[in-house]
Design brief:
By secondary structure, the protein is mainly alpha-helical. The protein is about 60% helix and about 0% strand.
């Protein structure tokens, strides 16, 4: 089987009848469509199709439109399938310049299914470290900015991957620090301060646990948790310190 266009695959997904076959999401069907979709991974076409199917999905979730059933599923549910596969196909683009255009697809008005939002986060953060400057300059485009449910997840991933990859035998490249000037200063500051607060809480809990355990193996594990929390806290505090050192008129220049 072969397809001539992105629209042809989307139409097949939209009208897919799983009554006698695998579910439209996952398994053999997902493997089948993801085998062909990379062939049509063109940024302009994907973004246009994403906008179309997301609007259908969103209007259906709000009870406004696309509420007729086709087989066992509503139109807007079928549109959500198309949206998912299109978003996964973004991962096959040569660079992550699509990131600013897809921040709007993490809305607060209705909570996207967790099983889908995490794969979407994975697509955005897949190309390390190329995605870091694009994401830093795009975080303010998230609905409700730092209050958005994926904002902290994005910041955590950028900090963690930056410092996790440091080794003693080479000079570190601090990608998240290098991109700080591209972000919205207030938003980035709030997100990093939240990271710091959460690691302080984790450190406190780890220290309390260390005081309670008695067996040597438990002490060893608890001590490792304490050290890990200390390291993570130090990394977040370093990022905040570097942000505060930057002149205010410089931070945010990338998203103006």
């Amino acid at each position: 089987m072969s397809y001539e266009s992105l629209e042809e695959i989307m139409e097949e997904i939209f009208y897919y009848d799983d009554e006698d076959h695998d579910d439209a999401m996952g398994g053999i069907t997902e493997y089948h469509w993801m085998e062909f979709l990379p062939k049509f991974a063109v940024k302009k076409d994907l973004l246009k199709a994403l906008d179309r199917y997301f609007n259908m999905w969103d209007l259906g979730e709000r009870g406004v439109d696309y509420l007729e059933k086709i087989g066992e599923f509503y139109e807007y549910e079928r549109a959500s399938w198309c949206f998912y596969y299109l978003f996964m196909t973004l991962g096959y683009l040569e660079n992550p310049s699509f990131i600013p255009s897809v921040m709007k697809y993490f809305p607060d008005e209705w909570y996207m299914e967790g099983m889908w939002s995490q794969p979407m986060v994975g697509v955005i953060t897949a190309r390390w470290p190329d995605y870091v400057p694009w994401l830093m300059r795009s975080l303010h485009l998230l609905p409700s900015k730092e209050l958005n449910y994926v904002a902290s997840d994005f910041m955590f991933k950028m900090i963690f991957k930056t410092f996790y990859r440091i080794t003693p035998d080479e000079f570190p490249k601090l990608y998240v620090v290098d991109a700080l000037h591209l972000g919205n200063r207030i938003m980035i500051k709030n997100l990093v301060e939240k990271e710091i607060s959460e690691w302080k809480d984790s450190l406190k809990k780890a220290q309390e646990k260390l005081q309670k355990v008695s067996r040597e193996q438990e002490k060893k594990v608890a001590q490792e948790d304490v050290e890990s929390a200390k390291e993570s806290l130090a990394c977040a505090e370093y990022v905040l310190g570097q942000l505060l050192l930057l002149p205010e008129e410089v931070v945010g220049i990338g998203h103006r």
